[in-house]
Amino acid sequence: MNNNNTQKSTQGTHSDNAYFMDYAFSHGFGELHVKVDKETGMKAIIAIHSTKRGPALGGCRFIEYPNSEAAVQDAMRLAIGMSAKAALANLPIGGGKAVIIKPSTPFDRNKVLNLFGEFVNSLDGRYITALDSGTQLDDMDTIALTTPYVASRSSHGDPSPSTALGVFRGIQAAVKFKLKRNDLKGLHIAIQGLGHVGYPLASLLHHAGAKLTVADVNQASVLRAEEAFSANIVNSADILKLNCDVLAPCALGGILNDLTISELQTSIIAGAANNQLHHSRHGQILHDKGILYATDYVINAGGLIFAACKYSKTLESDMEGQIDYIGHRLLEIFERSTNENKPTSIICDTMAQELLA
To answer: In terms of CB atoms within 10 Å, which end of the chain has fewer, N or C?
Structure first.
């Protein structure tokens, strides 16, 4: 563990530190950095999992945590996921993640972000930060005042449409593999969540000829989809039980659990939500039920591709080609899942490990 501190942290125990070091070692981490500052109240962690394929890119979370240990664990867990996502998207980057623990007392946000930018800059480009929970594009612009290693800026635009396009390509691939269809015309697709990704996804599916049923806690969003896409509306409690060809979860994670899986009436699950499986064993249950699961961290990689391409100044046409690759990668995963009779979630993890070995 590499501590980069302006003030030595007194939180945590020797057993906590030993656990994190053992976890980092067993999961192949390259670096783990911590920086704290008493004046601003900043406590930040940067976890760099892998730089084998290139500098580690991953978002910065700025949220509250119950304690510092939970924040470190979150950063490390998410960094592993970023390595796998980048590898399976065939991007020339590694995986990392940053966490700023949101202070529980009043603080100067700009000062914290400036200091975090200095923290990022001290790593000499081995970690590139980006947008994540609790941060906005304006925050990234502030961080960019003290470091060039920022992949999400307001000048780059919104990554959500790229995420939606990647999910759309993933749905096309899943339908081609599972339903033997080369188009989406007339297929019934249920979308849970009409936020920044779910709504543009609904637009793409509508224009491809799909029949939509939607659910969202925001009534204005579902009414907008009803008018624009002739979508049917159901409440959020019923969307997962719907008899449909494709279920696209685009809201909260952990929604595929013992109860919801027993009620599913779909052939395909392909949506943008992160961490859809409540537990890893639920991937096996879906596989045993014959439901094709487009693993979340593969199908929702469009946002990461957008950030990486904007950072490297990739041509727009080349970026779209990389997003289209999501569908090709999923077809490869589906084929291998069938041949080896293993869940797609396990196949994805295995392929990522092979690419990072």
So the answer is: C
